[in-house]
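Hey everyone, long-time lurker, first post.

I ran two proteins through the pipeline my lab uses and got sequence/structure pairs for each. Pasting them in order. The first:
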Amino acid sequence: MSATIVLVHGAFADAASWAPVTRELLDRGHTVLVPPVYNRSLLEDGASVKAFVENITGPVVLAGHSYGGAVITVAGTADNVAGLVFVSGYALDEGESLGQLQGGFPDSDLAANLVYTPYPGGTDVSVKIDAFPAVFAAGVDTAVAEVLAVSQRPLTAQAFGEPAPVAAWKTKPSWGIVSSADHTINPDVERFGYQRAGVREVVEIDGPHLVMQTHPKDVADVIEKAVQSVAG
């Protein structure tokens, strides 16, 4: 049985961020699902995606973009997860938070372009709309970037400080994509996390943070390789 591919989006985005890769994988005959991530809490988001995966029959390959990488680090402990693919993502260690990993490599344009908006019980974090195309969606068609900027899904500030309770890459084979032109996450954050996780293969793509939008075939190739590997 071929693995179902579950694509997990990150902060400041939604399932539409994966649309070009979703189309590419569907055209190649894969079964693909792209659940919502609520961006309320790393623990809650990890539990939500894990529950989603556990309701799928058969093996699953989880691919997580950006914050979605942290989410699959937690959700990937589901018994039917056969492999992980980190895409411009945070491969957290057990007991480590987003802030801790990001803080070790501070050169990024993201921190200076965040907006903090209180809501009852917490604070939402989003990217300044006018800065979004350059900081988050560099290389993406301008018209598309403008739409993504005004439809972004914020991440609660709480999620930055929550430590990952588990690290699924310790028991599941993993692959990693580095966006070498990333202005949202320092590419060295990605490289460091993948090296520490002992991923089977690191692929460097000369693309921006939203590499799924600019290089969908390249991203799909890595995901497909993971599917083929776990199936064999």
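...and the second, right after it:
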Amino acid sequence: MDHESPLLHDLFGIPWLDFNLSTTLMTFISSVIVFIICTLAARNLQMKPTGFQNFMEWVVDFVKGIIGDTMDWKTGKVFLPLGLTLLVYIFISNILGVITMGVWGHTLWWKSPTSDATLTLSLSALVIVLTHYYGVKVKGFKEYAKDYVRPVPFLLPFKIIEEFTNTLTLGLRLFGNIFAGEILLGLITKMAFIAAPITFISIIPMMAWQGFSLFIGAIQAFIFTMLTMVYMSHKVSSDH
């Protein structure tokens, strides 16, 4: 692709600190969309749900199933809001750049915010920090610390390394899939403007790739949420 993301260079006078304006914009838009969706779903609640309320209740039950598969529900029910937020937010963020791409001049403004590694790694780091927080909160610091030397003490360095690898793999997996999807979609779009016959031919692969990208966006949101609950269960459960 011939366009670049808008950056604020040397933020706060720090030479290596760049600020991506399009990622910030799309993160805000994703948050607004999720807020609107949840607000609409919570309006005029009925005992016999229909339409959009019925769909959102299915999503809630789906997240309950994820939590129930990874830990005891009595322990995991507190993580329902976290899982629901991650699933909906990441899915919406994933598909924004699939629906359309906004380019002004040679500057890319409208894209999936999850195609930026800064956002995905920030999400994964936040998740890992939360697992440690709830691990200490549920078990107490002493019992929580003992998990790092179980079943044998020499595993301590490997378990510390595991925390960093979990952060990297969780964030980079999401980033890689969404970024690659946007790159290929951009190449197909660029091909469509070469000549009229190619424009007609490129419609089919573009529609096919958009459908596949929607599927990938949903799968990646599910994987991120599932792994979040798996990591959480390792910290808060005694019988993992």
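Reply from user beta_strand_b:
Welcome! Quick read of the second one: Residues 24 and 113 are 8 Å apart (CA to CA). The first strand starts at residue 7 and ends at 8.
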